[in-house]
Please model this.
Amino acid sequence: MKVASLAVSMGAVAVGFLLAAGPARADANQEMMEAAGRLVFHRCQTCHSLDTSVNAFGPSLHGVVGRKAGTVPRFEYSEAMRKSNITWTEDKLRQWVADNEKTVPGTRMRHVSITDVAEQDYLLAFLKSLK
Model:
């Protein structure tokens, strides 16, 4: 009896450790996703800044997730973008990075499409971290 009771207690302790490690593991995974996204973002940084006070050839992408398109102050958007009525959700950003000209016909932005879903996941994790 004592051996069985000890085994159950040890099992409960092991489950407790696994549950406790869960959030830490999730945090580590999120950090890795964001780091990979920063690498994917290197393709974007030629034209986009992460500094909210700096617009380059493209607008700053700090806080882009959840933002209404065409609303960054001091940036001259194309008429197509201003009239797009898009809010940058994860799904809309995926469409945009895969084929921006299809998403907003008439946009001025030109870029290399990011169609790989894993790269999109990484990029979105990074962009979501910019708050």
The chain has a mean pLDDT of 85. The two ends are 55 Å apart (CA to CA).
